[in-house]
From TrEMBL:
<dbReference type="Pfam" id="PF01618">
    <property type="entry name" value="MotA_ExbB"/>
</dbReference>
<dbReference type="GO" id="GO:0017038">
    <property type="term" value="P:protein import"/>
</dbReference>
<feature type="transmembrane region" description="Helical">
    <location>
        <begin position="173"/>
        <end position="194"/>
    </location>
</feature>
<keyword id="KW-0653">Protein transport</keyword>
<keyword id="KW-1133">Transmembrane helix</keyword>
<feature type="transmembrane region" description="Helical">
    <location>
        <begin position="30"/>
        <end position="48"/>
    </location>
</feature>
<dbReference type="InterPro" id="IPR002898">
    <property type="entry name" value="MotA_ExbB_proton_chnl"/>
</dbReference>
<feature type="transmembrane region" description="Helical">
    <location>
        <begin position="130"/>
        <end position="153"/>
    </location>
</feature>
<dbReference type="InterPro" id="IPR050790">
    <property type="entry name" value="ExbB/TolQ_transport"/>
</dbReference>
<keyword id="KW-0812">Transmembrane</keyword>
<keyword id="KW-1003">Cell membrane</keyword>
<keyword id="KW-0472">Membrane</keyword>
<dbReference type="GO" id="GO:0005886">
    <property type="term" value="C:plasma membrane"/>
</dbReference>
<feature type="domain" description="MotA/TolQ/ExbB proton channel">
    <location>
        <begin position="87"/>
        <end position="209"/>
    </location>
</feature>
<keyword id="KW-0813">Transport</keyword>
<protein>
    <submittedName>
        <fullName>MotA/TolQ/ExbB proton channel family protein</fullName>
    </submittedName>
</protein>
<comment type="similarity">
    <text>Belongs to the exbB/tolQ family.</text>
</comment>
Length: 224
């Protein structure tokens, strides 16, 4: 095996084989690679920033609702509010709004909690539509580069007449293939990243709904 590899290397050196770096390959894609690069950086930034924001929002104290229940049963409303304000989470902000509405009709309390929950989910979904746009737009930009590259290749063919060779067509073909690959890579990453974040947000929504239901059940309990 080592001998075979050595022979292959020697043959490549004798034939003057030229290697193509990633940067050189990217440059072959032409100006279309600039917006694709910007979209890739944006997609990575949105994914990382939203991931940590959603991760932070999904962290809750498992004993939080038990302590809220105890404070409300003991009529320690101020202590319950202080507990909510000490935790910077969507669940705590929702329950805080509900506690502030205690004494009003229960449908009004539930509506106030749901409004806060909708605002919290809206904050978590910030920038996700743009990530979805990148998932659909990046491959289209790549295909645009493909069309431009093929037009360039056919134009070079028409200008060359009967003196057509592979080297003459290489620039157009490089543009066509490289932009297609780049657009698909960016689009695939954005697509999977978007769906991953959406799935994480759905878990947060389920947690918010569960805590809202538990809090409302607490208010419906008869006073002992």
């Amino acid at each position: 095996m080592f001998t075979l590899l050595q022979v292959t290397t020697d043959v490549a050196e004798e034939q003057g084989e030229v290697t193509l770096s990633f940067l050189d390959l990217a440059l072959k894609g032409g100006w279309i690679m600039i917006p694709l690069f910007l979209l890739s950086v944006t997609a990575v930034y949105i994914f990382v920033e939203r991931y940590f924001a959603i991760r932070k929002a999904s962290k809750t104290d498992s004993n939080f609702m038990n302590r809220i229940r105890e404070y409300i049963h003991e009529d320690k409303i101020d202590a319950a509010l202080a507990l909510c304000r000490s935790q910077n989470t969507p669940v705590a902000r929702m329950i805080e709004k509900g506690i502030q509405r205690i004494g009003r009709p229960l449908p009004d309390v539930n509506a106030a909690i749901e409004n806060v929950g909708n605002l919290e989910i809206s904050k978590l979904e910030e920038s996700l539509p743009f990530l979805a746009t990148i998932a659909g737009g990046a491959p289209m930009l790549g295909f645009l580069g493909t069309v431009i590259g093929m037009i360039r290749a056919f134009y070079d063919m028409s200008m060359a007449g009967n003196n057509i060779d592979v080297g003459l067509l290489s620039n157009g073909i490089y543009t066509a293939m490289v932009t297609t690959v780049a657009g698909l890579v960016v689009g695939i990453f954005a697509y999977f990243g978007y769906n991953f974040l959406v799935a994480r947000i759905e878990k947060v929504v389920f947690n918010l709904e569960a805590n809202t239901s538990e809090f409302m059940d607490l208010l419906y309990e008869p006073v002992s």
